[in-house]
Amino acid sequence: MPGAIDLRGVTKRFGPKTVVDSLDLRVEAGEFLSLLGPSGCGKSTTLRMIAGLEQPSEGRIWLDGADITDQPPHKRTVNTVFQSYALFPHLSVAGNIAYALRLRRTDRATVDAEVRRALEMVRMSDYADHSPRQISGGQQQRVALARAIVARPSALLLDEPLSALDLKLRQAMRLELKRLHREIGITFVFVTHDQGEALTMSDRVAVMHEGRILQLDRPEVLYERPATRFVASFIGDANLVEGVVMRCEGERVTVRVGDSEMQAGGASVAVGERTVVSVRPQRMRVEREGTGASGLLTEIIYLGEATSAAVRLEGTDQQVTALRLNVEGVRPFGDARPGDRVKISWEPGAARVLVQ
Amino acid sequence: MTALLERRERRRLLTLRLPGVALIAALYLLPMALVVAYSFLEPGRAGSVQWRPTLDAYRELLRPDPRANLYNGYVTLLVRSAWWSSLATVVTLAISLPLATFIAGRRSVLAKNALLVAVVIPFWTSMLVRIYAMRFLFANGGPVNGWLEALGMERRVFLNTPGIVFAGLVYTALPFMVLPLYAAIERADRDVLNAARDLGANPIQVFFTAFVPLVRVGIVTGCMLVFVLSVSQYLVPTLLGGGKANMIANVIENQFNESQNWPLGSAISVSLVVLSLVGTWWSVRFDRGLVR
User: Fold this and answer.
1) Of the candidates B191, B199, B290, which has its C-beta nearest A99's C-beta?
2) Mean pLDDT estimate for chain B
């Protein structure tokens, strides 16, 4: 199956500013890969370089084993869905979708059939004759998708395609995109700053920051075992607990947090060094009695589907949060009340020592 | 209740519009009506008109004059004015499109504004002064001929030729084309052009299938302005053509002053207005054609 993209040492500078910094990335054929990061991290620029809309300052880009770095965008078999949709305002919905086919001088019957098929695929068959101005943002989004896939590219590049939609629509479109990816089976490279989008749709996620990829892995690995402080805090909520490394035995690190010693997984770190441990709120234990670091329960907040508890660690100004799903008839944090002294702890597997 | 309010609102709007409407009526419609009326009257002895209705002026306008050549047949002159103006419009468009694209493409706002000011500055100078400047530049002993000589070429006569009149038309019209084009290009979504490239359009296809439709309004507005402006040019053919490359406005002036045939001058004026309207109508049609 075609659609494997290889970026090797790709750098992009705008004037003195390095936006993408010697990036190496391999996107497997047929994969749904997300580039996730805050604005300005270089994710969109990376995508535009794959499309050919920007030229890398250094490095090469390969598509299915061919070096396409010097190919102009119209020669590349990848298509883009733009953030602003960028539909042709002077063409109808059907005209927009037919655009790529007409450029190739495809015969009329084939164009009509392909356009109809693409319209069906994005469920816009009733709007073929509408002008882009007459349809909603979500519908424009679908047309932009249909326009990009109708020419059967080997990879589809999506530049924050959902960011202009409202929340409900955004969530519906996630499923829609996932379905589309399954149906047409080509490579999807999806750029987003929304970790929820990246986690729910992708086979793999590359977390980008300041022009580099910090971590590239499956969503669950990113979530469970973030490698750096940035990844831990960018993906989901994480307690970043400061402590001092006491012992280090292979993948198992013992860290002193407040008045207690606790276990965490992670790469080897130097004994005696200050470090940060990431613990997801739902894996943070808060108990009135037991072992763990002492703290003061400052607040219990009801959030609807869950309840959160905030604890200030004794002897520090560190605040940690714990989260429990609300279950009928069960008090989420036992009989603990705000103002109580509590112990916080976690399973060794629930915590990761982070690279700063 | 709402009907009453609506009526009051409408009356208020009408009152607000009144000064503008009155101004247009007094300064445009009334003189225009006079010109149309004059064109159907007999000429007075020393200018002015005699209020006796006749079609003489139009007969004179359309009369095939056996001596009529390029320089004095009215219809020929009308046609030539329209032809030169159309050509000037196309040439101005061809010069302005890359220029406006270049200005709109500057990243720095400072550069953009500086370039725009450079285009607009001629607006602040009297047209008369600018055309005299051209006369000076292209005079037989002027700088342009000096440069030609320095480059080892022969001196040329520029003034009082159709070529220099045509150049003058383009020169005076340029800002009227660049500004609407710039506004349209500036407003256009660059990603639509990128989408065209991305979907497989080569640069020429991007230009015709995406760029031109995107900046359509600017093109049509600019062409309309330039055509109407050029077809009624008086100063350029007078000062640069020296009476040897006249356009229709020169003849109108001649009928009102030297020849003192006001009805004929009026009739030619009416035909010029009709010509401008045809140009405008054609632009609108062209516009519709692009929308499809």
Assistant:
1) B199
2) 88
